């Protein structure tokens, strides 16, 4: 599955910066049962924790604490990168 559009007002450079941060912190993303809608992403601060990232309609949801307050996080950005969304998305989507 290639994700080509995400419903967000967050600028592309923010998503790319978060994906780079996830890579620098050596986070890993794994599909659950090979389904591209369900992922787990490792935590950089606690090796015993993983966060659930779910593709729902045209959005990604994450169970991390940052997602409670921000419209983006490094876990969602890593999944977007793995799905190819950061390579093909040219402009942020207006609200």
Please render the helix and strand layout as text:
Blueprint: H1 12-24, E1 29-32, E2 35-42, E3 50-56, E4 59-62, H2 74-83, H3 85-88
Antiparallel strand pairs: 1-2, 2-3, 3-4
Keywords:
95 residues, alpha+beta, four-stranded antiparallel β-sheet, 4 strands
Architecture overview:
The chain has helices at 12-24, 74-83, 85-88, and strands at 29-32, 35-42, 50-56, 59-62. The chain contains three helices and four strands, in the order H-E-E-E-E-H-H. It has a four-stranded antiparallel sheet with strand order 1-2-3-4. The termini are far apart. With 95 residues, it is of the alpha+beta class.
Helix/strand class: alpha+beta
**What is the radius of gyration computed over CA atoms, rounded to a whole number of angstroms?**
12 Å
Structural domains: how many: 1
Oligomer: single chain
Number of strands: 4
- Which strands sit side by side, in order, in the main sheet? 1-2-3-4
Biggest β-sheet, characterized? 4 strands, antiparallel
Cα separation of the termini:
25 Å
Compute the average pLDDT.
85
Q: What does the overall shape look like?
A: globular
Summed up, what is this model?
The chain is an alpha+beta fold. It is 28% helix and 24% strand.
